[in-house]
Amino acid sequence: MSKYTEDDLKIELENKEYEYGFYTDIESDTFPVGLNEDIVRAISKKKEEPEWMTDWRIEAFRAWEQMVEPEWANVHYEKPKFQDISYYSAPLKKAKYESLDEVDPELLETFKKLGISIDEQKMLSGVAVDIVMDSVSVATTFKKTLAEKGIIFCSISEAIKEHSELVRKYIGSVVPQKDNFYAALNSAVFSDGSFCYIPKGVRCPMELSTYFRINQAGTGQFERTLVIADEGSYVSYLEGCTAPSRDENQLHAAVVELIALDDAEIKYSTVQNWFPGNKEGKGGVYNFVTKRGLCEKNAKISWTQVETGSAVTWKYPSCILKGDNSVGEFYSIAVTNNYQQADTGTKMIHLGKNTKSTIISKGISAGKSQNSYRGLVQISSRADNARNFSQCDSLLMGNNCGAHTFPYIESKNPSAKIEHEATTSKIGEDQVFYCNQRGIPTEKAIALIVNGFSKEVLNKLPMEFAVEAQKLLEISLEGSVG
Amino acid sequence: MELKEKLISSFMAFEERVDVDSDLHDVRTEAFKNFENKGFPTKKEEAWKYTSLNTILKNDFSVFPKKENAVEFSEVKKYFIHEIDTYKVVFVDGVFSSFLSSTTHDGLDVCLMSSALTKPKYKMVIDEYFNKVANKEESLTSLNTAFAYEGAYINIPRSKVVEKPIEIINFSTGTEAALLVQPRNLIIVGENAHVQIIERHQSLNDNPVLTNSVTEIFVQKRAIVDYYKIQNDNLEASLIDNTYIAQKEQSNASVHTFSFGGNLTRNNLNFYHQGEHIDSTLKGITIIEGKQHVDHYTLVQHATPNCESHQNYKGIFDDKSTGVFNGKIYVEKEAQKTDAFQQNNNILLSDKASINAKPQLEIFADDVKCSHGCTIGQLDEKAMFYMQSRGIPQKEAKALLMYAFSNEVIESIKIPAMKARITKIIAMKLGVNMGFDL
């Protein structure tokens, strides 16, 4: 295959310009604002996608046009203007800064607290890094190990081109194009994302993480992730990063699809720390994500999430327990401070016999934030002996914030056992006093208590993530005491 | 929608019968406008997600019964708690039956809404209380308000302890092919007063009946109200019960709902707190089979500090019956030190029965104790085996377990005769003789 260069692309686009009748600014390589079928086609073209993919996008776009933005969530925000967004922007080639000295000192301070190495700091804040070669070589050796096992781990655009049959078979099988407003939008315009395939009986030897492809991650306003674990395989997948990313994109509408075939297990961990807006609640990211996993026989999907960023979070990682004896788990910590709003939870759809699900959700609200848990546990009439346990605990700090729970429980099977419990509490004065007495300052004491409150979920995170997540909790709640 | 059209013309006919110049009529017109705009609730609304009125609304309901009907006391005696002496306010097809009732004006008012709404001496009370706590946005409540004319009016003066319970019973005789009745009750319980009220809707034959009832209860300072709703109707009767309770400081109100029968039963039970140290109790037992449907929709609005609410709903569902529990606890910013508890336990006995539960907490205050628990399960096989191995037949063993399951609610009934009655109904429903009385 001859190499297709940027220049070829430029030339092609220049020629295509007339055909589609819109203007492309070659310099910045960003599409004009607005969304129509031509834009969708152009994105697909730009990514050199096969025809079926283009058609698939168009189908999604047409469905999206018919849809109305949902309003049922317990969040209030100014609706994004979909025609004012540019739907494609090539990864920036030029570094944003020349050296770390130019980076926002507040950001650096946070990095320091999280204990992130200088090189990583540079990468994350978009500083030109010379030693990036190191990182690349790490990634390369890493890729080699994976390839030996037959594991495919690449960007979704690459997968569409090179593993077309796999993608075609599974994309949209768990989250159909017409699933919801944002999923439809994502299906139409997704720019990039990750693709992962674990072959039969393979246990992935390391935690897969988008972190290794951080240079590409900058593209993702509409990310698409597809993870397929073939029969009897295991994978642990990490998404996001613990460092605050100063992404100014207003809207993030990602779609994540997990497919766990017979006896497979997928563990999907997310730490999200996008820009939550400033202390007055100005700015910040809207995080509207559709995440869903499908479990075949004896399969297991486990979602773990730590949500501390974004101005508005609206996501429900779900499990469809289709196969008999399949297991779904959901562990979540959602922290909101200042004017943040989170409406998050899960859906456990029990279809197969002897299916089990566990939901542990911890919500912490401080400042003037609103934190909601919204979940659905549905037992179909065929799901004999289905079992669910849900626990939603909320911690409130101060009386300007709110905690809400909206659990939906629908059971159509007499042999199902479902338990749900929810509590709301605050940090006890006596607890803080106890710590103070022993020389622990209030701020530290609060961190200690919050950590204890979230332990059940933090324990589910992979080791290196857990340590950073713990620190992240501390930082997110900074200044919320007193 | 046909019924809606019919209601519009009925409202015009109704306007000819009542005094259209009164303030009250403005309230009615306002409410009717709201109903006209909103129409009957559909499954698209979050509050009605699991309950559809469609099939019921297809009936050609008469809004006003054409003729009055007499009912013999001997026929309906079993529907009263006849073992004890009570005040009675009885309606037959929506019309007051003086023959079956025993009302009073001696020291307290137990009488009729129609006279309270029209007689000048009650005007002040009506102005102050009528339609004041009912939700003006809710379309079915508005529909009731628009046609508000008859019902029970109970006014207990301060410091009065009413020595016998008050029964409010609505019979429908089925002379109409299908009947829509809309009783409107107003209950005011003065400071330090104490009253026990039993409400029942009963259809006497198999013609479809839809009851859309609204009850407003005002509980003044330190007053105590125990309210019992018995819903054990036949399979053609549907009930939409809207109850609104406003509580002042240190008052204590409890509502027990026993849903044992009816085509479709929807209970909207709303508590609003207007003072500190209030105690609210909401309890219910639902035991249904066949294709029956019972929907409990509760709201406790904690607006003031130091208040408590306790909810405990038990449900047993057999055959193709469906149950819904939607319990909302709302704690406002000011309502510190709130203690709100909600529990909902359900047992499904058959493959076709289903239950949809949505316990909901909305909390804006930080120093509160709020919890809810919800379980869906089945009878404990070990316990069944234990009893059967000791010679208790399966049916009885099953009944005993279910009885034990609901006992937490039964034991808090404060009227002994009522407790015995409920026990009896449950035994009948379970098809066994318990062999013990309580």
From TrEMBL, chain A:
GO terms classed as biological process: iron-sulfur cluster assembly
Ranges annotated as spanning the membrane: none
SUF system FeS cluster assembly SufBD core domain span: 212-453
Domain SUF system FeS cluster assembly SufBD N-terminal: 124-204
Superkingdom: Bacteria
Family, as annotated: Belongs to the iron-sulfur cluster assembly SufBD family.
Listed name of the protein: Iron-regulated ABC transporter membrane component SufB
UniProtKB/TrEMBL annotation, chain B:
Top-rank taxon, per record: Bacteria
Domain SUF system FeS cluster assembly SufBD N-terminal: 4-168
InterPro entries: Fe-S_cluster_assembly_SufBD, SUF_FeS_clus_asmbl_SufBD_core, SUF_FeS_clus_asmbl_SufBD_sf, SUF_FeS_clus_asmbl_SufD, SufBD_N
Domain spans labelled SUF system FeS cluster assembly SufBD core: 177-405
SUPFAM superfamilies referenced in this protein's UniProt entry, alphabetically: Stabilizer of iron transporter SufD (SSF101960)
GO BP terms: iron-sulfur cluster assembly
One Pfam family cited in the UniProt record for this chain: SUFBD_core
Family of the protein in this entry: Belongs to the iron-sulfur cluster assembly SufBD family.
Stated name of the protein: Fe-S cluster assembly protein SufD
Species per Swiss-Prot/TrEMBL record: Flavobacterium endophyticum
